[in-house]
Amino acid sequence: MHGTQNDYTKSPCKMEPGVQDMKIGFIGAGNMAFGLAQGILRAGEVKPENVIVSAPSSNNFGRFQDMGVAVTHSNMEVVTASQLVFLAVKPHLIRTVLNEIVQHVTHKHTFVSVAAGVTLETLENLLPGLPVLRLMPNLPCVVQEGALLFSRGSLARPEEGTLLRGLLSSCGLVEEGPESWIDAHTGMSGSGVAFVYLFAEALAEGGVKMGIPSVIAHRIAAQTILGAGRMLREYGKHPAQLRAEVCTPGGTTIFGLHELERGGLRAATMGAVEAATERARDLSRK
Ligand SMILES: NC(=O)c1ccc[n+]([C@@H]2O[C@H](COP(=O)([O-])OP(=O)(O)OC[C@H]3O[C@@H](n4cnc5c(N)ncnc54)[C@H](OP(=O)(O)O)[C@@H]3O)[C@@H](O)[C@H]2O)c1
């Protein structure tokens, strides 16, 4: 499997020449398609007129049309108009959609699936002889702060990985890894967003308990999490080091941290990632 030979620590690469003229399609016009399309257009290399999106209803078309992207009810039209096709429908629809379009697929096509639990093996069986990549984004893509992990199928070359990285650079962090990491990434980062929301809620409720009005407490909690996250990313230090820097001996923070340790926050969070990963694995097997 080529995945084990890759250098997964590579830094993001520049976009390939010719990407300006690349035609990009999305099958499915939901939240994930929107987040990715928005990120691709924000990166500035791809023109909106080179992007096309399909869905059965017009319910989600408005926000794509606002970006200057073409819309259609025909998945076949997306395939014939595009070289790079994102599959952004719910996982149970992947087989139906691919059976519908497969006769229009040619060797100019590369497919990128974001469908949770749909393996590269399944995609390669449904799209024989074609380069296929599996991408797992998370919802903060819609605010350009996503955490994305992709894996290449057996026919996808490193160049296709480089292209995808470049295209999605404005969606947030883009990493490449073996497919075996995808479920853990889903548990840690896809579901992890909800774990952080729970922590935000609890932090704010602590503030409310201590007398801060709820609306303000929630705003402060969101900013605290954003600030801590940015420091983690921008300083590149281990979280334990940043945490130690906030702890004055005998001060407020170490008293609070002791309560969190007593409550088992660390073990509960690790257990949550493990449970969500196992659930993603179960769903992939169904
Ligand atoms: N949301 C997340 O956080 C997240 C994270 C990682 C991966 N994903 C994956 O991303 C994929 C899409 O999720 P989502 O949250 O964007 O879902 P969503 O908002 O429900 O969007 C699904 C889209 O698929 C369209 N659709 C339904 N049947 C179709 C068909 N036969 N042909 C073409 N389009 C069809 C829907 O059309 P209408 O507009 O007419 O309803 C809708 O635009 C899923 O496979 C999911 O596993 C999502």
From TrEMBL:
tRNA processing recorded as keyword: no
EC numbers: 1.5.1.2
Localization annotation: Cytoplasm
Pfam family, one: P5CR_dimer
Record's keyword annotation contains Glycoprotein: no
UniProt xrefs under Gene3D superfamilies: NAD(P)-binding Rossmann-like Domain, ProC C-terminal domain-like
Pathway info: Amino-acid biosynthesis; L-proline biosynthesis; L-proline from L-glutamate 5-semialdehyde: step 1/1
Key words, A-Z: Amino-acid biosynthesis, Cytoplasm, NADP, Oxidoreductase, Proline biosynthesis
GO BP terms, alphabetized: L-proline biosynthetic process
Protein name: Pyrroline-5-carboxylate reductase
